[in-house]
């Protein structure tokens, strides 16, 4: 599912091109500080609560694919034009699924680290859906360049995970294991949907998972909201969570405490 970089990219890393849905120049929710957020085009998952269905497609009817082919140079140019605003921020690659274009994002992050005007902080926001232990070396260059990873754990219950997004959790868990082995700082994110992922046992399961990873520096329980619904209407896609209300933010905070208690218990079992 990886998109190959263009041939001239072998000699000029700044010429590596990826398929980009859009850029958000002043993002404040995907990593620390104010960030340039790169929405990569294409995602193999179909999360019921996804609010970016316009980033799903990898290829259009002509095979050329949606999204714009954008070079590392162009993206860094946008960053440099606004550099003063990003002083405590950096660049985040999200999507869609950025690991589906691992070579492109690796080149972008490497160039960000080597930027002549000063090193740029890099953050990868991923579901881990394309990560495979069998082909882990494909992702090594990218993981080498991540200062922070925002890792989605869609559900701790395996059957619920598959029902929610159409794929097993094994990829995300294998990526989490690898990030822990490498000691890459990780913030785990879990969307809490009423009636689906808001059970105490479900969120305690998330807590137990992160109790195995000593590199986790944060846990975000994100309350489901219905703002993505309008995009489904525009695209003519049936909305999978029709009738499901937005998640109560206060209950979400309580559930986060449940998850953190389970994490502490798990760490205690491990002697941490
Ligand atoms: S991984 Fe993200 S972009 Fe892909 S379907 Fe799920 S929420 Fe949407």
Automatic annotation (TrEMBL):
Record keyword Cytoplasm present: yes
Cofactor note: Binds 1 [4Fe-4S] cluster. The cluster is coordinated with 3 cysteines and an exchangeable S-adenosyl-L-methionine.
TM region positions: none
UniProt-listed Enzyme Commission number(s): 1.97.1.4
Pfam families: Radical_SAM (PF04055)
Similarity comment: Belongs to the organic radical-activating enzymes family.
Domain of life the protein comes from: Bacteria
Cellular component aspect of the GO annotation: cytoplasm
The species this protein was found in: Thermophilibacter immobilis
Protein name, per record: Pyruvate formate-lyase-activating enzyme
Task of the protein: Activation of pyruvate formate-lyase under anaerobic conditions by generation of an organic free radical, using S-adenosylmethionine and reduced flavodoxin as cosubstrates to produce 5'-deoxy-adenosine.
Subcellular location: Cytoplasm
Signal peptide: none
Domain Radical SAM core: 29-265
Catalyzed reactions per annotation: glycyl-[formate C-acetyltransferase] + reduced [flavodoxin] + S-adenosyl-L-methionine = glycin-2-yl radical-[formate C-acetyltransferase] + semiquinone [flavodoxin] + 5'-deoxyadenosine + L-methionine + H(+)
